[in-house]
Amino acid sequence: MSAVLTSVQSASLGVPAEHALILSAVLFVIGLVGVMARRNVLFMLMSLEIMMNAAALAFVIGGNIWGSPDGQIMFIFVLTLAAAEAAIGLAILLQFYHRFKSLDVNHASKLKG
Amino acid sequence: MMELLTRFLANGEVVGFYALGFVALWSSLRVVTHANPVHAILSMIVSLLAVAGIFFIIGAPFAGVLEMIVYAGAILVLFVFVIMMLNLGTDTLEEKSWLTASAWATPVCLTLIIGGVLVGFLVGGERAMLSDATIDVKAVGVSLFTQYVLLVEVAAFLLLGALVAAYHLGKRALDDENVSHFQDQIDEHADQGENS
Fold it and tell me: A82 — contact with chain B (CB < 8 Å)?
């Protein structure tokens, strides 16, 4: 069984690891463009999710390269963080819309207290 | 050219990887550039499912399943619920007037510089290949509950904190409405009391 496993582990997928990491980096930059360029709070939250997803993809790729489960474990923690962030962010978004009747983040400069 | 194509198509996983990567990039771009939130959320679900497929291809089935269930299934349903609660859809089309070309230009150029630097770090150096090995659920679970068990506890605290914070933040929005309606009722009763 272990011999089979090691022979499987030595096989290559045929994709260079840097291509997968470049995919992750470009996804991250797309999310960063969203956070910086958009002024809608909802779209900024979604772009943050894209960025977290790209970082989690990089973790899983690393786990694949080194053949250890640590990458997927970090993926689980990133997923936990994303869920917590989405819950709090959407609650703040509801407050924001309730108060300003708009999703323009520039109104947030007028927040008091 | 044909030889290259046949060699490329002979390996289905490689084709699947690049195709899913392209789908993920394209749908993420659509998320960032759309004005309609419902269309953007659908593109985002497509993007997450493409990334889940990539996880399956590179031998992380547990991560792929979690991506589908938790990300595409739970977190994005939360977004959809919020869009439905706010009754968005046509309202946020006003963002088209906020988004002028000059508002896009500077941040996009800056982030493209960051992207160029990131890609430049990755290109070159010694070339590692992705391996074909599958890291199964058992290995992940054993490592999660022996080596990383403390972090599991911390994640539980984080989720509890997020639950309490989201409840607290969301409750005040509802309370404002309740208080105002309640106040109206009290005022009405007071008026009736004075009239009688």
Answer: yes
Nearest CA in chain B to A101: B86
Q: Is B89 left (phi over 0), alpha (psi -120 to 50) or beta?
A: left
C-alpha distances (whole Å) from A75 to each of B61, B146, B162 are: 12, 17, 19
Q: What is the mean pLDDT of chain A?
A: 85
* Predicted confidence (pLDDT) per residue in A25-57, tens digit: 999 999 999 999 888 889 999 999 999 999 999
pLDDT higher at B2 or B191: B2
The C-alpha of A110 sits at a distance from chain B's nearest C-alpha, in angstroms, of 18
Mean pLDDT value of segment B12-36 = 90
Chain B residues in contact with A30 by the CB 8 A cut-off are 25, 28-29, 32
pTM of the model: 0.83
Closest CA to A56 of B112, B127, B61, B63: B63
Per-residue pLDDT tens digits for B45-67: 999 999 999 999 988 999 999 99
**Helix or strand holding residue A13 (H, E):** strand A12-16
Nearest CA in chain A to B21: A23
Which one has a higher pLDDT value, B100 or B65? B65
Nearest to A90 by CA among B5, B86, B97, B71: B86
pLDDT of B121 above 70? yes
